[in-house]
Design goal:
With 89 residues, the protein is α+β, with helices and mostly antiparallel strands. 21% of the residues lie in helices and 47% in strands.
């Protein structure tokens, strides 16, 4: 299983969008512009995406299984809470 070795969080004030995050996986692969949102049940981490000509969005980097996605989400949310100075929601 992969290890998220670096997480950098950049706070923003864009409605429900709380912050952007860059992650480094296994000290060898970086993914930029993950988005952290506040939703009714807690935090949501959205993968980077591009807007297509038809107006829809497509993720350009993503986990291919639930276990990997959970590792990424936990690392990003943990670092967000440190940077934002928030307690668990």
């Amino acid at each position: 299983l992969l290890k998220v070795t670096i997480v950098r969080v950049f706070l923003t004030d864009e409605g429900n969008l709380l912050a952007y995050a860059d992650i480094t996986i296994d000290n060898s692969f970086r993914v930029r512009d993950l988005e952290i949102f506040c939703r009714g049940r807690g935090y949501l981490v959205a993968m980077p995406q591009v807007k297509l000509k038809n107006g829809k969005y497509r993720e350009i980097a993503f986990a291919i299984n639930a276990k990997t996605r959970k590792v990424i989400e936990e690392a990003v949310i943990t670092e967000y809470k440190k940077v934002a100075g928030t307690e668990a929601k």
